[in-house]
Design a protein that fits this description.
The chain has 281 residues and is of the alpha/beta class. The chain folds into two domains: 206 residues, Malonyl-Coenzyme A Acyl Carrier Protein, domain 2; 62 residues, Malonyl-CoA ACP transacylase, ACP-binding (Alpha-Beta Plaits), CATH 3.30.70.250. Helix content is 45%, strand content 14%. It is built from eleven helices and eight strands. The strands form two sheets. The chain has a four-stranded parallel sheet with strand order 7-2-1-8, with helices on both faces. A hairpin with a 2-residue loop joins strand 4 and strand 5.
């Protein structure tokens, strides 16, 4: 079984897409026209330092990884048996599985990036070597309230989200107990209760579109299981406020097949996570 996996926000880097832009000039120009800026310049040169901003990062990554996916097909690479993506990467997974066209996907991620960028006043932190249940217990012991589990990346890495005061209190709690953590370079508490206003607006936006069921299984971040018929709109809406269940997503594949192969589009970060999940760490 071949699982093709798509990286999400955080995997962007200056120079990305240079290997595929020239092969798809029509799609690149269309994307630039829809977005209102020179996508090639943003991705390859980033002259104004905008590539790291959510409203630019998300459509840029979607386009680059879409073109890389088209390139896999053009080369005649082995077809995927299942797709999964981390957060934003799930949109590339659904595109690859035929749930919507490139043009629709671009409009979806542009709106998603806009809404997520508009959220502010908080952030996210990766916490190491502390199970989520125990982590929440530790925070509660110190009276830290308002922290959500936003990502279950591996058995040894959990991502939390909250407002800035809440995260500062959480960091103090973790430092006192010598629990290692890393502040993530994001501008808001994604995949948490704090994205509810964005979820409501995005749900309204999605009513303008119709989606096909994936023609190849796609694993949902929300459930860690394959999409069921008629779920695309609901899952894309809930993904904004639900934790990314990456460990469950990968573990489900590992438990169902003795030796699944993983091919990552858009970096190596997910491949490293898969290695840790496979190793049970």
């Amino acid at each position: 079984m071949l699982a093709v996996i798509f990286a999400g926000q955080g995997s962007q880097e200056k120079g990305m897409g240079a290997e595929v832009f020239e092969r798809y000039p029509g799609l690149v120009q269309y994307a630039s026209d829809v977005l209102g800026y020179d996508l090639v310049s943003l991705c390859t040169e980033d002259p104004d330092g905008l590539l790291g901003r959510t409203e630019y990062t998300q459509p840029a990554l979607f386009v680059v990884n879409a073109l890389r996916t088209f390139e896999r097909v053009h080369r005649g690479d082995r077809a995927a048996d299942v797709y999964l993506g981390h957060s934003l990467g799930e949109y590339n997974a659904l595109l690859a599985a035929g749930s919507f066209a490139f043009e629709t996907g671009l409009r979806l991620v542009a709106k998603r990036g806009e809404l997520m960028a508009a959220a502010s006043g908080g952030g996210m932190t990766a916490v190491m070597n502390t199970p989520p249940e125990r982590l929440l217990e530790i925070l509660a012991e110190d009276g830290v309230d308002g922290v959500d589990i936003a990502g279950l990346n591996t058995g040894s890495q959990v991502v939390i989200a909250g407002t800035q005061p809440v995260l500062e209190a959480a960091h103090a709690c973790l430092e006192k107990r010598e629990i290692r953590f890393v502040r993530l370079k994001v501008s808001a508490p994604f995949h948490s209760r704090y994205m509810e206003p964005a979820r409501v607006r995005f749900a309204e936006f999605l009513t303008e579109f119709e989606f096909a069921d994936p023609d190849t299984p796609v694993i949902s971040n929300v459930t860690g299981r394959p999409y069921e018929p008629g779920q695309v709109t609901h899952m894309l809406t809930e993904q904004l406020v639900a934790p990314v269940r990456w460990t469950d997503s990968v573990r489900g594949l590992l438990d169902g097949d003795a030796e699944p192969e993983f091919t990552e589009i858009g970096g190596l970060a997910l491949t490293h996570m898969v290695f840790k999940i496979r190793a049970g760490v």
